[in-house]
Amino acid sequence: MNDSPDKTISDFALVQLIPNMLTIAAICAGISAIRFGVQGNYTLAVQLIVAACVLDFLDGRLARLLGSDSEMGAELDSLADFVNFGVAAPLVIFFWALQDMQSAAWISVLVYAICCVVRLARFNVDSKADCENLPSACFSGIPSPAGALLVMLPMSVSFAFADVPLLPDVVICAHMIVVGLLMISRIPTWSFKTARISRENVKFFLVGFAFVSAALLTYAWITLVVLCVGYIGTVIWCLLTKPPSELKR
User: Fold this and answer.
1) Spatial distance between the Cα atoms of 157 and 221, rounded to a whole number of angstroms
2) How many domains does the chain have?
3) Could you tell me if residue 2 is inside a domain?
4) Coil, strand or helix: which one is 139?
C-alpha cells in the first residue's frame, strides 16, 4: 500500500514563474505611477509607465521561450495592460495638465480608458479574427502599450523641450480621445511580435538597437519623442498602403 498522497497539482520550476513575476512587477509600476502622479512627481510617473511597457514586451516572449505560457498568464497580462496603459497613463496626464477643466477632462480620461478595455477585450475574444484579412505581422488598431506612450507624448515633449509652451487643455483632451479611438479602430498597425529579420541584417539591427539604447540612456525624453513620432509614421504608412476594404473592416 502506498501511503504517499497523490499529487493533484503539478510542480512549477521557479524559472517558469518569472514571466508572471514580470507581469506583477509591471502592475506594481503602473499603480506606483498613479501614486507619484498624485504627488506631482510626473517624471518618475512616466518613467514607471515606460518601464511597464518594457516589462509587458518581455513577459509574453519569456513565457513562450520557457514554455510556461498559460491561460492564467494571458489573463493576468491583459489585466496588467488595462491597469498600466488604460488607467495609469490617462490619470497621470489628468494630474499633470488637466486640473483646470476637471469635468470635461475627466470625460476624455473615461473615453480613453473605455477604449483601452474594449481593445483588450476584443483582442482576448478573437485576436486572430481581427487580422484575418491583414498581413500576419500586424495588429488591428494601436496596441495598448503604444497607446499609452502616444497619449503621454505631450508630457514627453514638455520634458524634452522645457522652452516649448504646454498645449492647451482642450488639445490634450482631444489628443487623448483620438488615441483611444485609434486603439479600437480597424487600422492595421505593424506588430513587433511577428517581425522577422534576415540573417544578413541581424548585425545592422543589433547596432541600431545599441544606438537606440544609448540614446535612451543619454537623451531619454528626446529619444522617446522620436520613437513615438516614428511609430506614428508607421501608422500613417499603413493607412496609405493598405486597400480601403482592409481599413474598413
Assistant:
1) 7
2) 1
3) no
4) strand
Question: Where are any strands of DSSP class E within the chain?
Answer: 138-140, 188-190
CATH code of the domain containing 128: 1.20.120.1760
Counting beta carbons within 10 angstroms of the beta carbon of residue 46, is it exposed (0 to 12), middle (13 to 18) or buried (19 or more)?
Answer: buried
pLDDT at 137: 55
Using DSSP's 3-state secondary structure scheme, residue 188 falls into strand
Q: How confident is the model at residue 131 (pLDDT cuts 50, 70, 90)?
A: very low
pLDDT score, position 96: 92
pTM: 0.82
Q: Rounded to whole angstroms, how far apart are CA atoms 180 and 116?
A: 7
Task: Tell me how far apart the alpha carbons of residues 19 and 38 are, in angstroms, rounded to a whole number.
Answer: 29
Asked, for residue 7, whether it belongs to a domain, the answer is no
Q: CA-CA distance, 140 to 143, in Å (whole number)? A: 8
Q: How many CA within 13 A on the CB side of residue 134?
A: 26
Residue 136 has pLDDT above 60, yes or no: no
Compute φ and ψ for 98, nearest 5 degrees. Answer: -115, 20
* pLDDT tens column, 14-70: 666 778 888 899 999 999 999 999 999 999 999 999 999 988 888 777 777 766 667
Is it the case that residue 132 has pLDDT exceeding 60? no
Tell me which residue range forms the domain holding 190: 14-248
Interatomic CA distance for residues 144 and 180, integer angstroms: 9
Pairwise CA distance, residues 230 & 98, whole Å:
27
- 242 residue type, one letter: K
Cell digits of residue 221 = 525624453
On whether residue 89 sits in a domain, the answer given is yes
Cβ distance 58 to 22 under 8 Å? yes
